[in-house]
Amino acid sequence: MNKLKLEILGLSSSQSQTGSFALVLGEVEGNRRLPIIIGMFEAQAIAIEIEKILPNRPMTHDLFKAFANNFHFTIEEIVISDLKEGVFFAKIVCTDGLKKMEIDARPSDAIAIGLRFDSPIYTYENILAEAGIVLTDEADDEPEVKAEAKPKAKRSEATKSKDDFKNLSVDKLNELLKEAIEKEDYERAAKLRDELSKRN
Fold first, then answer.
1. Is the per-residue pLDDT at 185 higher than 80?
2. Spatial CA neighbour of 12 closest among 192, 153, 119
3. How far apart are CA 80 and CA 89, in angstroms?
4. CA distance 149 to 191
């Protein structure tokens, strides 16, 4: 299976789940986005490395890097390898120079570790086809990667009703999906995408 390279486009606080963040990955040679909901601690570990902030004491992912370096392991790449029932899976591909190994991990942890090794991030076409969101030409510029949370945008009436999309038509869902992408509300876009997937 061909791997598609991804880059980190944005990290913003979740508008519906306290303590959660939306990590937005983008296809390097394409216009699809892959939003993944991650926890607060993993978001902090990713943001700290992106912003090149040095914590007073090593964080867990820094400890992993120190451990790997001391045993002469390097991280070759991070692969978002699977998607089952809305849950993403990842693999950390590492080597000691002689043999290559794959370690199962949550995508958030894998990416936090991969950033510390400057490792590329990949996924497969079937995952982007199923969970990717196509960015339209009308959408605004790329979201910036920031450690701080984005201010909450005004939300529509449909959003206020706790994102209950079950009673909406497919046309209405597509309209709301387009609107969410234009507002860079990737978490909501992911929920709309999942509802549309259930109906296909």
1. no
2. 153
3. 6
4. 20
Task: Give the start-to-end residue ranges of the domains of the chain.
Answer: 3-153
Question: What distances in angstroms separate CA 76 from CA 64, 118, 122, one per listed residue?
Answer: 15, 9, 11
Instruction: Give per-residue pLDDT as tens, 89-131.
Output: 999 999 999 999 999 999 999 999 999 999 999 999 999 988 8
Q: How far apart are CA 57 and CA 181, in angstroms?
A: 38
- Segment (H or E) for 16: none
Instruction: Please state, in angstroms and rounded to a whole number, the distance separating the CA atoms of residues 128 and 65.
Output: 29
Express each pLDDT in 122-165 by its tens digit.
999 999 988 888 876 544 444 444 433 333 333 333 343 445 77
Instruction: Give the contacts of 184 (CB within 8 A, at least 6 positions apart).
Output: 10, 12, 139, 140, 143, 150, 153
Rounded to whole angstroms, the Cα distance separating 62 from 96 reads 18
- The pLDDT-based confidence of 175 (bands split at 50, 70, 90) is confident
- Please name the fold of domain 3-153: Bifunctional nuclease domain (3.10.690)
Reference 4, options 35, 25, 19; nearest CA is 25
